[in-house]
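Subject: Sanity check before I submit

Could someone independently write out the structure tokens for this chain? I want to compare against mine line by line before I put it in a report. The sequence has 224 residues.
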Amino acid sequence: MEEKIKIIFENENYLVVNKPAGMTTTKEKKGEEGTLEDYLIRIRPNNLLRNGIMHRLDKGTSGLVLVAKNELAFRNFKNQFRNRSLTKKYYCLVGGEVSVDGSINWPVGRSKYGFGKFGVVIDGKEALTKFRLIKKYRKDKKKYSFLEVDLKTGRTHQIRVHLSYLRWPLVGDKLYGGEVDILKRPFLQAFYLKIVDPISGKEKVFETDLADDLKEHLKLYEEE
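---
Independent answer below. Compare away.
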């Protein structure tokens, strides 16, 4: 798995890595190994919380992760997350026809209907997801939509929960009602990250291509 991890950018204060699908971001369970955190401890050890990992991606999600290398960068990025001055964008393929761009502002919290599952719940945490339709597809007389998602808050499973609630589940996302055939993980990639450099104060933008397995899966669909 580790040979698929790519360092997109690095300087003395932080780095940006491209996490592959199938890898847990941080050590969430006792004795868990093979996480992105384990990898970073080996190649760039530091004394920060979670070895400087600033945000998590679900195990099945591929894409960009921001990692602080020192206390100055860690505090600065933490403020950027708190102030929502960072931008994180994702690509996803959902079942159903999405006809308009829009935003979803519904609270997300633990679901009462399944272990490890989250949902839109009244007493959940504020969660804001914006989405933009990029392209429509079809396969076997069914319609699908390829979306760009701008994640404004970082709740667990937020994109998956919000889109499933609108009856647009992510392809491959068995937990939230998505179709599972050849693709064995949610069609979701964190492809874009915009931050403010903690030293220079300048905006920095990082992007990555769609993961190979997602590119191949998209070939199964016809464009509309």
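---
OP: Matches mine. For the report I'm noting this point. DSSP finds four helices and twelve strands in the chain.
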